[in-house]
Design goal:
Blueprint lengths: L1 H30 L4 H20 L3 H21 L1 H12 L8 H24 L4 E5 L6 H4 L3 E6 L2 H7 L10 E5 L2 E7 L15 H12 L3 E5 L6 E5 L2 E3 L4 H12 L6 H16 L1
Parallel strand pairs: 1-3
Antiparallel strand pairs: 1-5, 2-4, 3-4, 5-6, 6-7
Helix pairs in contact: 2-3, 5-7, 5-9, 5-10
């Protein structure tokens, strides 16, 4: 009987550790690429100082750190309200414990459709644009160089942002999931000496960011009306609508079983065109 109780206790400990580890892992995924990462580093330093104060019985220092913790909770909630809201939204949508492949498939199809529609319209009107789609590498540092929007992704909004008379048309638009996070962002230019001299700042910025992250950059040239893609430091130029959709979907789709949503997207586009 004792052996059974011991095994049950051991099993419950293992389950407890696994659940806590899973929660911590997803919390770190939510915080990746945000200002909260710096907060975690600061909290780690404070915890180390608090432990040292306990070991060496430094009463005044321990009192100071403990009071900082009590006040800091309120400060964290105020300062990091956007990050906390995003985490709660993902938790409410089930994103905290992982979205289903069908939901990810639909989101990828939506992003591809809206970005493609906007890029084609901008190209027809000879309006330059730089649209960056975030993937695994966090881009919050670059998002903060522009104007934070936190707006629902739509082709209409993208087109309006890049209108020449818009205050946000310079710089890049950053997309995270199905949200336009920021506009007018400044990106690092590529330092590759072999990049063609005829490429302008938009193309160099798109290539530069793709060299430093796994982001996908869609560039529309106002001089030539060509649409290009920058992925992993490589620029693919003069893409047709079909190739643009195919390449974007290939990069943004979930790992497996992603065909149906793309088929539905093209079917719906065909219906819209026939109306």
């Amino acid at each position: 009987m004792r052996s059974l109780d011991g095994n049950l206790g051991y099993l419950s400990d293992v389950i407890d550790i696994l659940i806590v580890s899973y929660i911590i892992y997803h919390l770190l995924k939510l915080l990746r690429g945000t200002r909260a990462v710096q907060l975690l580093k600061g909290l780690t330093v404070l915890v180390v100082i608090w432990l040292v104060s306990n070991v060496f019985d430094l009463a005044t220092l321990r009192w100071l750190i403990e009071n900082l913790f009590s006040v800091g909770v309120i400060a964290v909630i105020i300062i990091f309200q956007p990050e906390l809201r995003r985490a709660l939204e993902q938790l409410g949508r089930g994103g905290f414990f992982g979205r289903s492949r069908q939901v990810e498939d639909q989101m990828a199809a939506q992003v591809v459709g809206e970005v493609t529609k906007a890029a084609l319209q901008l190209a027809r009107n000879r309006i330059g644009a730089l649209i960056v789609i975030e993937r695994q590498t966090g881009l919050s540092d670059y998002a903060e160089t522009g104007t934070l929007l936190e707006a629902r992704l739509s082709s209409e909004l993208l087109v309006n942002i890049f209108q020449p008379n818009s205050s946000l048309h310079d710089g890049a638009v950053l997309i995270r999931g199905s949200t336009i996070v920021s506009a007018g962002c400044y990106l690092p230019l590529t330092e590759n000496p072999f990049v063609s001299k005829e490429l302008g700042t938009r193309h160099r910025a798109g290539i530069g960011l793709s060299e430093l992250s796994d982001a996908v950059a869609v560039i529309v040239s106002e001089e030539t009306s060509q649409i290009s893609l920058a992925i992993h430091g490589i620029l693919e130029r003069n893409l047709s609508e079909e190739i643009l959709v195919s390449r974007l979907y290939e990069e943004l789709k979930p790992p497996e079983k992603t065909g149906p949503a793309l088929f539905r997207m093209w079917r719906d586009r065909g219906r819209e065109g026939s109306q």
